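Hi R.,

Here's the input for the D-malate complex you asked about:
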Amino acid sequence: MSVARVRGIELAYEVSGAGLPVVLLHGFPFNRTLWHEQVEALQERYQVITVDLRGHGETTVTADAPATMKEMAEDVAALLDELHLECIVLGGLSMGGYVVLAFYRLFPERIRALVLADTRPQADTDEARIGREETAARALSQGMQTIADAMLPKLLAPTTHAERPDIVARVRDMVLNTDPQGAAAALRGMAVREDQTELLRKINCPTLIIVGRHDTITPFADSAFMYHEIRGANMKVLEGAAHVSNLERPAEFNHALNDFLDALEP
Ligand code: MLT
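And here is the predicted structure with D-malate in place:
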C-alpha cells in the first residue's frame, strides 16, 4: 500500500503492473480490495491503480462535512498529479461511478476511456436523500453492523448468497471495516451529488457499461439509459450478478474489461 499526501488528507492507493494506466474506484461502503480480481487479471498488461476514496479503507476520514463526489474526484486528480499520470482509463462501481462522472465533468482531457459499472447518472430524489440521512445517523449511532445487515441482501444476487459464502463474507467485511464517520460523510456526499444526465451526451471517449442483471440498487434500466445517451458506448449485462457484479462474476467482468481495453488504440 502507498500513501499520497494530497489536499490535506492521506490517500491510500496501490499500483500494480505497467502499461496504460487504469484507475479503479470502489463503491460504498467498500475499499480498494474490491478490485483484487481485476488487478490480477489486468496487471500483466496495464498499470492498475486502486484507490481508497476519502473516508474509506486506509484513507483519511473527513467527518466535518459531506464527502462530495467532486471532492473525491479532485482527490483522484491530485493523486494522478503525484504519480505524473496525465491521461488514464477511469472506472468505477456504483459510488465509484458517480465519482467517475464527476471526474469527467471536471477533467475530460485526462480521460482515455471510461468504465461505468453498476452505477447511474441521476442525482438522488428527495426521498432518497432522506433515506441517506437516516442511514448516516444510524451508522453514527449504531455502527456499521446495522448497515451491513440492511445492505447485504440487496448487494448480492440470491445465487451469490446461496452458493458463495466467501463473497458474502468479503463484502460484509468491507462494510464492517468502513469507519462510520467516513460512511456518513459519503452518504451525505452522495445525497448532494450533481445530476450528470446532461453530461452523458458530451462524453466522447470509449465507454464500457457493465451491470449485473439482478442489480436493484442501480438497475439495468439506468445502464440502458447511459448506453443510449453515450455515443458509441458498449454494454455488458452480467447474468447471475446483482450490484457487486465484479465480485459476483469476475471472469465475465474481466473478460468484458480486457476486450474493451484491448480495443483501445495505443
Ligand atoms: C454503492 O454501492 O456505491 C452505493 O450503494 C450507491 C448508492 O447508494 O447510491
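One thing worth noting: The beta strands are 2-6, 9-16, 20-25, 46-51, 88-93, 111-117, 207-212, 234-238.

Cheers,
M.
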